[in-house]
């Protein structure tokens, strides 16, 4: 699932490349992605893009007074540049992702006046990609509910404490709860908790002052560090860059880079997460339920 560092890098590339360009064509191949049926993405054809930003894990393409195209990438969604049939100057083969049998299908294509073709893709067995055309991004429920963003320059310790202190909920769940802290998902919550040396299943209310200090520093440090590391990486390489940077997430069976112990899987909600028993749970190995 795309998380804030990768979506931030995506937004920055789209902002640099497409701001000032007019949208000349929209081809929606999967009608279910359009969440505002009265204002489909096609309603923005002819409008000039004025910028691209991020809200949590959602992408926001602004078209001035015409509105915003807000895209939820869901679990498996992403974006890629495609080569136009006319090989326009804005869509060169150097930009393109090879369209092999394993390439995820494009559910919508946005074509701009310089020939650039942006494809929105979804690789899952069910459609998780969603798109809204709205006057204000806050009209999108997933944006309206967002809590403070640890990547924001003004993110404060008070906001962090407000999200966690006293919560009788597992700390990993709180980190991933978008209403509490925006932009963090399964992968970066694993990385944050490992960096902070905190068990993922301890209740936030049970964290002591030292643990809260470490967790605050890890939350801001991991998220902001990942954004800095992803900045400038081509969008077709961002997912691979994320995977390569993980220290424990997705590393079950490998050695912990801190203590040398074995990184383990554990069952969390409807998915699998990773942790280091030595660094995080005083050696306790948590159960992994079979699926």
From TrEMBL:
Gene3D superfamilies: 1.10.8.50, MutM-like, N-terminal. Keywords: DNA damage, DNA repair, DNA-binding, Glycosidase, Hydrolase, Lyase, Metal-binding, Multifunctional enzyme, Zinc, Zinc-finger. Residues 247-281 form the FPG-type domain. The lineage of its organism: Bacteria, Bacillati, Actinomycetota, Actinomycetes, Micrococcales. This is Fpg/Nei family DNA glycosylase. It catalyses: Hydrolysis of DNA containing ring-opened 7-methylguanine residues, releasing 2,6-diamino-4-hydroxy-5-(N-methyl)formamidopyrimidine. It holds the Pfam family Fapy_DNA_glyco. The keyword Ribonucleoprotein does not apply. Belongs to the FPG family. Its cofactor is Zn(2+). Residues 2-127 form the Formamidopyrimidine-DNA glycosylase catalytic domain.
